[in-house]
User: Fold these one by one.
Assistant:
Number 1:
Amino acid sequence: MPPEVGGVERLERRLEDVVAVIQDFAALRFGARAPVGPAGDVVDAVAAGVNSLGEELEAFSEELERRVAERTAELAVATEELRRRALRDDLTGLANRAAFFERLAQRLAAADRRGTGCAVLYLDLDGFKTVNDTLGHAAGDRLLVEVARRLTEELRAGDTAARVGGDEFLVLLDEVVSGEAALAVARRVEQRLRAPHVLGGRTVTAPASIGVAAAPDGPTDADGLVAAADAAMYEAKRWEQGGCVLVGTGARPGDDPRQREVVPRPARPHS
Amino acid sequence: MSDQLQQVTHEKFRMWLRPDGIVELAWAPHVPSGLPDALAAIDAMTRLTGGRAAPLLVHTADAGPQDRAARMEFIRRQEVVSAVALVVGNPLSRMMATFFINVSRPEVATRSFEDEVAACAWLATFLD
């Protein structure tokens, strides 16, 4: 027997309600629900089934969003750790060459806005090879870590210290009023590094030769400034182990007062 | 045993402990149930059995729909039952039982039955 006309219309309305909810789901609105009547008939079963699927979709969607947020946070932490490692010297925790040159380039680019100049110190340990050869690489590593610690303690918060080679370090003095002020810092560092180290029960010394180049007195580009400090460091090393030389002055305690210009060597590649 | 609680009546269900050890749950007709009702049912089950897992016979033939939070709570607290028989009787109850078994996927043995006698016979196999 065919259903009465009014019954068909009611059935269509109930099914339209269900269809509307399905369309909401298609638009990712999983909170939509179809009315479930008291009859418990097949339309109610369809409506309740669609509602239950919507609940599952909603729960799945929330779980998915939670997992995505969790993974995104983990990825951000990992990315930050990779970035940190890419810019850090693993052994000493200081900046590496890439990080140093990035920081120096930023500082030089901001030179016009800053009231004071900056300077670069180039340090090379004079007794490092002997320590490595006689006490072993582990002792050499401990020496480098200790040097990094002492170096850092002599610097201010805005300064940057980097290890750029086996026993070579670079320092950016973020704010110095003159080359002489930078030289004074270099001398303080040199004195601090001159103090003996105790490694595996042995007392060793590893004085540093330090070249100092200040901007804007000297070169105003990163490569030129580092090359000038490098050349000054070799000049200091030429005199004797341990000592400081400022580019353009040859300043050194007890030195002949003549003003010697240290000619910067070509820049080393920094990447 | 004489002073043990035999029946719990709630605004949405009635639950009682049979002499053979099977617990029966009858939901109020056509009334939707949610998480508070599931919590109340689990509490009632615990009170009736003293916390010991027992077979549960659920009359769902004219029950209303049950939401996901309620289903998940029954899944989470399965330690109160040793087996569940869902007695169905109309399209809605069949759909809800099938959904509970296949989607919520309880770990405790759970089946739907059209016939109450068959359901009781199956549950009896889970009595201590």
Number 2:
Amino acid sequence: MHYDIRLHLHYDYARSSGGGRHQIRVVPRTLEGIQRVVASSLSFEPAPTEREDFTDFFGNSATSIAFREEHRTLDVRMNARIAVSRPEPGLDVSPDVTGLRRQIGELRSVAADTPHHFLAGSDFVAIEPEITDYARASLLAGGSVIGIAQDFCRRIHDDFTYDGKATTVATKADDAFRLRRGVCQDFTHVMIAGLRGLGIPAGYVSGFLRTIPPPGKTRLEGADAMHAWVNVWCGRDAGWQEFDPTNDMRAGNDHIVVGYGRDYSDVAPIVGVLKTTGGQKGKQAVDVIPID
Amino acid sequence: MSERGETGRDKADMNDTAPVPDIGGSASTLLKGYRLIDGVLDEMVDAAGTPKPVWRQFISAIEALGPDELTRRFARANQYLRDAGVYYRVYDNDGANEREWPLAHVPLLVDEKEWEGISAGLMQRADLFEAICADIYGPNRLVEQGVLPPGLVASSPEFLRPFAGVQPAGGHFLHFCAFELGRGPNGEWWVLGDRMQAPSGAGFALENRVATTRALSDIYGDMHVHRLAGFFRRFRDSLTAMASEPSGRAAILTPGPLNETYFEHAYIARYLGIMLLEGEDLTVTDGRLMVRTVSGLKPISVLWRRLDAAFADPLELRSDSQIGTPGLAEAIRRGSVTAVNALGSGILETRAFLAFLPKISRALRGEELLLSSIATWWCGQAAERQHVIDNFDRMMIGPAQSTRLPFEDEKATVLGSSLSPEQRASLLARIEANGGDFVGQEAVTLSTTPVFVGGGLEPRPASLRVYLARTPDGWVVMPGGFARIGYSLDATAIAMQRGGQAADVWVVSPTPVKQETLLPRERDVFKRNVPGSLPSRAAENLTWLGRYIERSEDTVRILRAYHVRLAETSDPDMPLLAYIRDYLKPVGIDTKIAIPPGLVRNLDNAVYSAGQIRDRFSPDGWLALRDLSKTIHQFAESVEPGDDATRVMTVLLRKLAGFSGLLSENMYRFTGWRFLEIGRRLERGIQIARSLGVLTPEDAPEGALDMMLEIGDSVMTHRRQYTVRSGRRSLVDLLALDPLNPRSVLFQLERLKQEIGLLPGSGTGGHLSPAAKEVLRLHTMLAIDEPGDLNPEALSLLANQIGGLYDTIARAYFR
């Protein structure tokens, strides 16, 4: 499956911004056996004074930009052609939680893709007893780690209401959990918190999702958005598996990965301190266009 | 012992304490209450109560002084600390409070031979931690070989991923370390904790030394005590040596005046002559760390950071940090700046690491540790977990990932035996379920050392903090440090949670020691510092300090003139008084209150501005300012309008004059002084022009002109220069246009013209800077005015134009 992906972020500053520095993570990465970047470009308007592209700890493509001149707007544009071919999920070869714990203990490495990084609480995902208690029902229902993740993914999808107004980009897992509402970012954080509470390593995936228009309707320009889902370490043999609690599904060929991290803060599309005394407003437009 | 058991308490204590024998033949009054705690070692005396050799001379000397003299002398040390403004900040239920530094006056004495052993052990330990840090942020062999559990690295909040694989610019991760030591019951010194991220307290150790030697200068002089200055000189030289290439500077980065130990940051910066910066002083351009100064951006290549790494860069570390510098992490990755210590080194303080150190030392360096750590068990391993559970009562139990010292962690670290049955069951269940989250540490007892209480010496438990600094020749150990002294007789280490005092540590040699000072030695190459690196924020604070001081003085002068008249009149509503009331009200000065809150606020603002730049202040200047502030707050509650207020205003004027005198007579004419001076002159120009505009119109109430002369402090000059009564023109001539009157507006502009002309970049290549042009224009225009030209409108315009000059300066230098 090939996609053309277009992303446009636009910011207006109430007052002229006297410089500023940002980090941007919006360009998909090449993942062996899952997806390949055929071509990509990332541009900024106005042109930043400094720009540095680098790969972060988790292997994501990141860009650091800085402005010295005053500016009133900022436009970030990303274009990419991506080939996706995710293997179908095979047989469940994951252990139970006890087996998983033993396997984790045998891993003598702190490389970025080892499960050790994804067990402790992190900025957005504190391990909260009430979320762990909620997750525990899936422990009994699931059996294997993949079974547990699948069951927990379904329960979040069923028990939570998708509501773009209930939470913000800064909402933490425990608040979203109490509301039982939110967007993909919140469902992802709650699922991560619950799994980690059970001792199952879980991380955050930032990316794009192809949305299929209702039958008879054409795809709306710019109507897509960036998406988030969960990466779960399911043992030595099954490895990392991705679950999408917003849509109650395993990640498939409609899911395009931008970055992996412990939670949103590791892979936020744009972070940065804007030197401005007024407020700032942002708009986001995303198109995920299948080309074959 | 000549007398014992004078009181009931002493009798009761007789059974379990050892008496201290008489020293030097004289009746020992100081030591008669010195009762050892059962089973606990003491630093001063041995188990039989005999003073150890290193203490003998000291004890005889203080015996000779006697309790009364000692009390007097120790009071002198306290006075010194108050005068020097030594404080630390405590956050409690009432918010942030400044506390006096709690000096315990009797130093802890350590024999030079014993100190050498401690030093060797700590140098080995510092090298070991350097190697661990290099491994964690490098190849991770310790994890790979199974020496260090991977979870202790990957789950640590102090494992900073932006620096994984990054080599530190200076070649080393650690440059300045501290260790907390205690002497255990077996007589050995143990390491209770390692401070590797941003160790605090070295400045307090210096102040302890200064204060203690104030009290005991003769004894200190007679004994061969190792000096501290050499340690600091060598570390400063190492920092500046690292900074010298290429064209960089060294600076100290502080979280700011609200930090617990800001006093110490400012103190060290002043003592070492190194810039003290806050996050907002810094910016990153093209991967280089730069300081914003009044002469533009200047590179920083060595940053002695005193803030926790997590707060250093909101872009890559904690995004909610308000005190960081965006881009700092990138500058470090690019190798353009050496952080002292490296960002990420905080992981070395992880409490659970103590359990693995002996194995790590063997794995990395093939060595046994010379100094043991406090016995520590990580409950992530089955056997260790069982040991902690089996010995629950004598364990201090806390979070495995904690980087706090067990006795600085009251919220999370508990003594097993102190728990209620419910708490105990709950903690045990958590240890069983998530053992990896916990460590148990043996609840050691610490040795005791003497403190001076109620005219005699008593033992108190103590721990010792020791500092190491990296130099091109390797580690140097501060010969001393500071001792924490517990308040109670409970000698378990965890009891230190309840706070305590700090004492100086004297390392005593049998032979004379080298005298050390920070001043260069004769043979040192003489080198001038590069001027013009005044940070913009410091310049702004200095300018406002000048403005607030001057504004306060002007207000006090007006209020004095007001209250003199109020005291003399029977009619508080006489036109002149009502007129002044109406003039002051819009500027926030309510004359109905003798000391108006607006005036108090001005002085508080002056103290605040000065508090932002403590490193640039002499202790005398700070003391004078604090005295002013204290005085006005005291008076504010009790003073009545009229005569009483007049008297108080005179006191305040005298103190203000004292402070101004200190500034103009004692402050070196650095760029910083110029900004202070500019602030004062601007404000005085504005105030005099304004007052003239209000008090000299034809229709001003009777007596206004005389009052103006008083406010302008020019009564006598006017009498001498002009033979007539106060006339409007002669008064405007004297207070606006006379170039020789230090209170006239023209005089202020003349001074401003000079000082602005000397600011960086004000006359490059023959072109005047905008501020230089503006002050030249104002000065010229006023110089050719005649008294008749200066009607109230013209004076009010003049005041506004001088105010506008501030904005021009701010745009050029404070951005």
